[in-house]
């Protein structure tokens, strides 16, 4: 009797855990879809130019024309918030795509073939991973110079390592399965085995990691812009907005800093919820 009750309690806890996870996943999707909609529809949600200055109306509070007010140069805060989000999200997402593709390909090749290729790539990965992520990216951007292109290159050169290691580990597990051995025995080429049988079974973990990687990229982009090493002005950017607004905190103009910081937090939270939800869903499926 006690065994039945214990089993029932375990099932109830499992169901509650799944319900909580599903709620977080759906909440994350809702948050991110809302953010994406707002930044992509920025031209319809605001009529103000995000880089247009109006020195006669600086540091205003909410008005019918500027309902979130203006900054120290008279630029509309709401407009800059939306267009800045578009800049950061597009760059953060694009900066995930390149290392995702590169790391996945290298990881699959290393995990499937092993040998000297695996040794060479993994030693390079160890060298890159030996340096703190932020320090290495900031150093590369400092060398390459400010701008979107420099940030994209710097993140790609560093971020591929995580994807390569994830896919390599999963590939080494998959390659010992019977269906891979059957494909090899049947004379199917290694290229087709990797693309048709290996990658579909290992890429999901890389996709889950990509969600958290976008969060990391947003943090990198905002940090670089905060220190003047990121997006080149006058292009709006959340990090630049935080840095510019910080000097007016003493005067009581908190919104200039709090609003872009809140945008970063909400977006990162949504992406984290999606990543956690997918990870749990995949574990349950397995």
Automatic annotation (TrEMBL):
Query: Could you tell me what this protein is called?
Result: Unannotated protein
Q: Where are the transmembrane segments?
A: 23-45, 89-112, 124-144, 150-167, 214-233, 253-282
Q: Which Gene Ontology BP terms does the record give?
A: transmembrane transport
Question: What GO CC annotations are associated with the protein?
Answer: plasma membrane
Look up keyword Cell membrane and say if it applies: yes
Record keywords: Cell membrane, Membrane, Transmembrane, Transmembrane helix, Transport
Where is the protein found, in the record's own terms? Answer: Cell membrane
Stretches assigned to the ABC transmembrane type-1 domain = 85-275
Gene3D superfamilies per the record?
A: MetI-like
Main location (coarse class): membrane
Q: Which InterPro entries match?
A: BP-dependent_transpt_permease, MetI-like, MetI-like_sf
- Spell out the PROSITE patterns in the cross-references: ABC_TM1
Its placement in the membrane is given as: Multi-pass membrane protein
